[in-house]
Amino acid sequence: MAEESQKWVLMVTAQTPTNIAVIKYWGKRDETLILPVNDSISVTLDPEHLCTTTTVSVSPAFDQDRMWLNGKEISLSGGRFQSCLREIRSRATDVHDKEKGIKITKKDWEKLNVHIASYNNFPTAAGLASSAAGFACLVFALAKLMNANEDHSQLSAIARRGSGSACRSLYGGFVKWIMGKDEKGTDSLAVQLADEKHWDELVIVIAVVSSQQKETSSTTGMRDTVETSLLLQHRAKEVVPKRILKMEEAIKNRDFASFAQLACTDSNQFHAVCLDTCPPIFYMNDTSHRIISLVEKWNCAAGTPQVAYTFDAGPNAVLIARNRETAALLVQKLLFCFPPKSDADLNSFVLGDKSILKDAGVESLEAIESLPAPPEIKDPSQRHRGDVSYFICTRPGRGPVVLSDESQFLLNPETGLPK
Amino acid sequence: MAEESQKWVLMVTAQTPTNIAVIKYWGKRDETLILPVNDSISVTLDPEHLCTTTTVSVSPAFDQDRMWLNGKEISLSGGRFQSCLREIRSRATDVHDKEKGIKITKKDWEKLNVHIASYNNFPTAAGLASSAAGFACLVFALAKLMNANEDHSQLSAIARRGSGSACRSLYGGFVKWIMGKDEKGTDSLAVQLADEKHWDELVIVIAVVSSQQKETSSTTGMRDTVETSLLLQHRAKEVVPKRILKMEEAIKNRDFASFAQLACTDSNQFHAVCLDTCPPIFYMNDTSHRIISLVEKWNCAAGTPQVAYTFDAGPNAVLIARNRETAALLVQKLLFCFPPKSDADLNSFVLGDKSILKDAGVESLEAIESLPAPPEIKDPSQRHRGDVSYFICTRPGRGPVVLSDESQFLLNPETGLPK
């Protein structure tokens, strides 16, 4: 190792996407190792619109492991952080940075402390799987820093120890988390089914739903479901395995009708087992129900699915449109039903890929007010103003990448402290 | 038969209660015979507060079967009415009314037409099982008129052909609908588990929840669930049979903790299979969820259940309090959370057994405004004014009775037409 007195700082910055499950993960068979009761399948969301950026750094000058999330220092003492740090450290290998003249041996890593800074480019509290992107990014960046030569699947098994669904954020496109059989969890990891270019017509619109209700955390919720639901085991053992096979086929064949049917029914069944939990868990609210009803009526009238919906542990709708044309129609319908409050501006009401607004012919707040009523709506006089906080337009996206542009680093290259 | 020219009219008036299932009926194995996929158990509600009154009459002067519901003539051509009429007619026996000098033989009934008038003492559209009370009353009154000497269980099997849950309204107290095995449905009928005096501390508060949403009818809903839910059969075959046995025990032993736990989890599981239906069925709304949350928190804090909740095919909450003291507390909490709109009057906001208001210390609208915030509520500044249309306070009640007071007859004794 280089002289400690030299006070060098070595760092790596990575960017990792979030993901949305289309066959849901709900229920652990092992709480500590985070081993699920069934396989799950997800779509990775474009990191341009939803991602975590994490800078990890190491220096002999650091006297303890520290972490900052969105600029605020947080504790690393939790078991989940410790699991990830321990697992990556144990896989660290020699690092030689010729440019900086730094040599770190496999053994040195045991004594060196790290600084970590992480930032989500979307609201953490919005229920958009920030912990999935976060733990995936932490593990990916640490593995790069410590030269842990594991492939993405092996890293996914480590990220899984931080947050189950994080394992699916190690790949872009379409990803399967295989539940595995090993009781130590070595085979519970993610594999890529297809990359993001495989099915690039899909457009994803997220409705971030206003909610006053305190939600049950997914950790607590799934524990309660495992302990009390009399339907969960039937779902996990009898229903999901067949759906996984069908969903893999649907993705392989870009069969939107099957994809949508499976995604919608599986989302609903996940919420059904939540309701079958004691006490019952309600993640969807009346706004979520209205969005489902709109999509179901549209799909039914069209004769074949135009849009798939899926809801995670919260009221937000993730809507997957079969193509860009359908997405523009979807945005029109959604903006009609859920216009912004009068003090809003369009720029902060529709985020992400705003070009969809042009396709939808909605380039001003006034245009929202004069949209035609969708035929799916019974009472067009009833518009649910303010019930959706904002929309994010996005698409399937790539997996983790290392960022080399220093301006994107979250830690000061000299001090290893937040910029 | 007496001379047709005499134009005599013979009539019977009966009153039949409604009922609320505490182990739910959802799903038919035979659509025409209305045979369920599982047993169910209900509590009969006091007819003083919720009942149907039906007058059935016969006269040689009637040239067709006719029926009036709440004063408005309705068609009897539907299969369900026809099944009930046919089944009762086939069981008719000789009638001899000495006072009026009328003799009707078993054979005469085939040619005679009936007039029927039915009236609910509660809003039909409120989703309070009006069809259950209605068909039970129709069958019970016709059986009396036609001297069909069947016991209540046999009549229940006929009422079942009108509306499945109607069979449970042939008895007071606590009633089990045995699904039966016979493919013709002869053994699918109701039996009384205990009469209403067996457990008379129970107090029932119904919250009639305001809703703009058009609900899926239970007939359509349960058909869709049978056809599409992958959880229903598991519920019907594996879960409900065990719950039925436990619920029978709980009722027998007046074990409120078990009763409440079973009623709540079974209500939630019924709504879970609705959600697992394609397209999903939502009967509960945000107000329903808030009421469940209030009760769950209260029960949890008390260490043992104080109140059970159950929801049928709509957003209304049926709340069963362990005793009158608990019911008074329940009414306080509910009135705090769901006060009436400012233009309401207390008399039309709390219906049924209004004496509970005195126990709750709420004898004016002003008293509602100054109620203390329940500890279960996180944000006491948020009161959901107008979200409950009205409350009905009631209790377990008796089964069908014949009314002899002519002033309660719904048809004119001379003409057989609505009064």
UniProtKB/TrEMBL annotation, chains A, B:
It comes from the Eukaryota. GO terms for cellular component: cytosol; peroxisome. Belongs to the diphosphomevalonate decarboxylase family. GO terms for biological process: isopentenyl diphosphate biosynthetic process, mevalonate pathway; sterol biosynthetic process. It catalyses: (R)-5-diphosphomevalonate + ATP = isopentenyl diphosphate + ADP + phosphate + CO2. GO terms for molecular function: ATP binding; diphosphomevalonate decarboxylase activity. Its main location: other. The lineage of its organism: Eukaryota, Viridiplantae, Streptophyta, Embryophyta, Tracheophyta. It is found in: Peroxisome. Pfam families: MDD_C, MVD-like_N. Performs the first committed step in the biosynthesis of isoprene-containing compounds such as sterols and terpenoids. Keywords: ATP-binding, Lipid biosynthesis, Lipid metabolism, Lyase, Nucleotide-binding, Peroxisome, Steroid biosynthesis, Steroid metabolism, Sterol biosynthesis, Sterol metabolism. Residues 17-190 form the Diphosphomevalonate decarboxylase-like N-terminal domain. Its EC number is 4.1.1.33. Residues 204-402 form the Mvd1 C-terminal domain. InterPro entries: GHMP_kinase_C_sf, Mev_decarb, Mev_diP_decarb, MVD-like_N, Mvd1_C, Ribosomal_Su5_D2-typ_SF, Ribsml_uS5_D2-typ_fold_subgr. It comes from Prunus armeniaca. This is Diphosphomevalonate decarboxylase.
